[in-house]
Predict the 3D structure of the following.
Amino acid sequence: MAFSERIDRLKSSLIREILAAAQKPEVMSFAGGLPAEPMLPKVDWSEMPVSLGQYGMSEGEPALREVIAAQARLLGVPCEASQVLVLSGSQQAIDLASKLFIDPGTEVLVEAPTYLAALQSFQLFGANCLAVPQEADGMQLDALRQCLEQHKPAFAYLIPTFQNPSGARYSEAKREAVAALLDEFNVPLFEDEPYRELVFDDEQATPIVSRLQRTSWIYTGTVSKTLLPGLRVGYLIASPDLFPYLLRLKQSADLHTNRIGQWQALQWLGTAQYDAHMAELRRFYRIRRDAMQAALLEHFAELADWQVPEGGLFFWLTLKQPIDTRTLLKPALAADVVFMPGEPFFVDPESNLGHVRLNFSHVAPERLAEGLGRLARVIREAQAAQAA
Amino acid sequence: MAFSERIDRLKSSLIREILAAAQKPEVMSFAGGLPAEPMLPKVDWSEMPVSLGQYGMSEGEPALREVIAAQARLLGVPCEASQVLVLSGSQQAIDLASKLFIDPGTEVLVEAPTYLAALQSFQLFGANCLAVPQEADGMQLDALRQCLEQHKPAFAYLIPTFQNPSGARYSEAKREAVAALLDEFNVPLFEDEPYRELVFDDEQATPIVSRLQRTSWIYTGTVSKTLLPGLRVGYLIASPDLFPYLLRLKQSADLHTNRIGQWQALQWLGTAQYDAHMAELRRFYRIRRDAMQAALLEHFAELADWQVPEGGLFFWLTLKQPIDTRTLLKPALAADVVFMPGEPFFVDPESNLGHVRLNFSHVAPERLAEGLGRLARVIREAQAAQAA
């Protein structure tokens, strides 16, 4: 039996295995990106029409596409409902963009670090990923220009607002500069925005796609971080030149997105009820962020450096004494605590040792200090063993 | 901007465009594979736990996997729940199998005709599809052996029970013979069974995968034809050597299947309520099948030959005077009737002119004769014009 060449590039998913291990109730998990259970809204299904059981359109429900386009226009994204493709979660946008752009050897520009599952998908399709270092306020512009001068990536994949894993938010200046560079070199932009709405301050962060003058673009979002991930409803909005291809790829992948989830999303998006839920969610997560910051100061001040994230779901720690954090997973699990090693978020893991991603939304504040204390002990012991 | 090579192979979907045209209420559609609206069961959501809003496992809900495995064992498929992967509709199995097996130039064995959207997906990934002619009781065995002797396909894709489009059901003898041949040449089997349960007689049709001794296999099914397609819940069951790869490909495609649809499917599968619903559905569709047969005898007896299907959703007509049926679409639409041309179901459409697929589940029996009369007129006029 012969598999395709891409199967040689199919990596065992570290996230999957960790999440599986973290199912045990005694394990305290800082690994996933799970919304807090108490903040899952109670939803009402009683009014859903029976006719939604029938097959639907590959594009998505017309009314939902209208609402998504209207919300995107409020953010400054110039679009019509005809450019909106409803997806089976925004992860699907990564699969579709991979299919649209990537042959073996195709160059793709990504941030360093970047979203692990995007990196894996691009590499599965054979991409040669070009990493541009990320700073607290976005990509290093000099490195971006240098990369664009030396390469011709098929597209740039960016997560400019509360990036997974780094939590970084691009400044307005960097948003402008990145848009100008992508326009100058005519490189399409794939802007992934799952965390945009989980924001704890009032700063502006207009999407980069809204600043483009010339190059093609894909913008994605989801209700998974704000409403219910179990619905599996996300979306992409694309420039009109890309849309027809993405639509056909979507149809080939799974015909259309489940209509019951789409109906439920439509009950919320753009309503006063949703605004109230979002305000509550932000307050709730800000409290958890603050509790995590306090616990980190207590247990990690001597071990690591970090920025306090102004949104999203993650702290990103840089260990003062670098160590391959993948080797910490086993002793951490033995101590009933689990985290996400930073290495797999880099195109070149071996040159980027010593980062840790910690989710702050899932563990209850009163258990945080205990869990982080256990993790700090595991790190100290490993570093001591390494030094010995 | 440069797309991947596969985009050159991305065909505009005839099905999509026809279904879009068929949305108009005045158009009578024999084109789709839509369940009849009156037979969509009324479902109850009131008991669904809030916790299903959270992210789920890529494999699917454990309880649903158990039920699917138990049902498959009743059919003779030797499997455990650990081999079941819940999918966002069974179309997704085609995408995952394409990724698992197909590089540009990879040979894939298919029936002639075969399911259009599978053919398109295999070709999108660059497959060289080898077509083995289909008869009323399954593949031509001589042609199959010859193909296997001369080629080394990565897998064989078969729809042995009420195939879309031909409606053919493999005999027990052919099921045995095909399994033996695939084992002999060690070619994995991808057996696609969306229509198995829509059966109007008592004949046996044990899955071919249950007869395999040696080669690897994927078996797929769905609740779309029996419950609600809008749920987007299908599944695959795979031999243990294939399962881990398919699971990771699923995770990369869309993380996991929507859990609300999975919960609803679980309320039905294997229950007495589901058995009663299925009995009603079969009775309802048999009546529609019989009404279609009567109307066909009235309007198509001189125009075409066909078998009466013992299950599924389609009649497959072979015109006595072949004509490229794709050219009939426009005049048919002008007459407010729409059907599915047969040519796109073949690897080599130009050598297979003159077939028509007609769905019998969607149009109400009292409107059938009128619609088929219109279609017969369109065909007669085109044949007269061709002869002139």
Summary: Chain A is about 35% helix and 15% strand. Chain A touches chain B through 80 residues (CB under 8 Å).
